[in-house]
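Q: Could you fold this chain for me?
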Amino acid sequence: MQAIRKRYFPALAEYIRNGNEASLYQATELGKLLNGINPEEIIAIHEECMQKIVANVESDEAVKLYNRSFIFLIELMVAYRFRLLPDKSTEQKFTEMREMLFHSNRSFEMVKNKYENVLQHMDSGIALFDSDGILSFINLQMAKLLDIPRKTLIGCNIREILLHRRINLTTKRIILRVYKETILRRNLYYELQHPDGNHLLVTVTYGDQLDGDFLISVKDVSEYKQIEQTAFQNDKLAMLGKIAAAIAHEIRNPLTSIRGFIQLLRPHLLQLGKEEYAKIILTEIDRANDIIYEFLNSSKPSAPMKQSISIVSLLREVVMLTESESLMRNCQVQLESYEDELMVSIDVKQVKQVILNLVKNSLDAIEELNGERTGLISVIARRDEQYVEVTIRDNGRGMDKTTMSRLFDPFFTTKEAGTGLGLSVSYRIIRNHGGSIRVDSQVDQGTEFNVYLPLVE
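A: Sure. Below is the predicted structure, expressed as structure tokens.
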């Protein structure tokens, strides 16, 4: 059977490429040589060869190739059946062949549709290289990742792919990095981050499992990374809680005592002309107390004292509270609402703290522009299925992806006088309310925070 396959595939491929009488003659000669093989085995060999031929073509072209292959199969089966059944009439032979070919056609269509559907719906990019490093198969998802038509890639090696006229510089660098980490260093798995922010996992299956070939699979694992980062964030917040509680108990009481003694010594420092020392010491002690207070809030925010309230009314109050400060910073804060009756069950004090914190962060980002443009902060409330979405959008300095990735980390801050706890506390408060916070930002374009809170049923 293996010997027949080796002869069948090149003969069929040549006829499909050329379609002339000379290549069709090979089908007749091959049919005469099929001794001891039943028709089902011949059909199976034909199907196997056709699957290889149409693996890297589009659907419409695959149908044309299948239809052309039937002529080859008919010629082969005529030679086979006429040799095998000398006692039957010509009409009986053709009737049997017609029925067999009809079943074969249906089988081809089913196989083609099955494999095509599997490839079309795979969420991973697949590329198969032979032992010589030549690309023999690539699916639609991989071609989409490379942004190159599949037809132009088949038969290319890595060097030829890198020199492809349609491949961009970013994709070239990614291919080279993957080649170095997987093929040269023989790593089975390699994870990288695409410049668009998506996380990709590359998996390689080597030749000893694929008869000398090797298979490369690329899967977008951004959602899994988000889940992992959320779990990591929760672990860090739990650790922060333990640290904060210990610091509060160990430092807060001594600071109170020190502050009291400094106030007692203040008159003596005044006589020595050193009152400024006392003022600086008291200011720094108050700052340390503020940090400890934020530690306590971040370690264990009190359980929400929930009440039903219109989120729009809460946002109006926040806008009023920040109105004077925004005018001083040459900034306008505007409220947009598409539906007034957006009722949520929240701890008003805690959620107001979150919204105020986000608006003040926006004001700080706009202040960094140093008057380059008039500041604008939009506070927007809208329904998003079972949640209310509160958007705080500004046209401030914006952030790069590195800053965004650490934004909710405790102690991380870009402000000189910041503690790095405001956003981590806000994250925890919203999570305790059954909601979530998302952020999107571009350098010099501005930042957008989206806060999601469950609506009251």
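A (continued): The longest strand covers residues 375-384.
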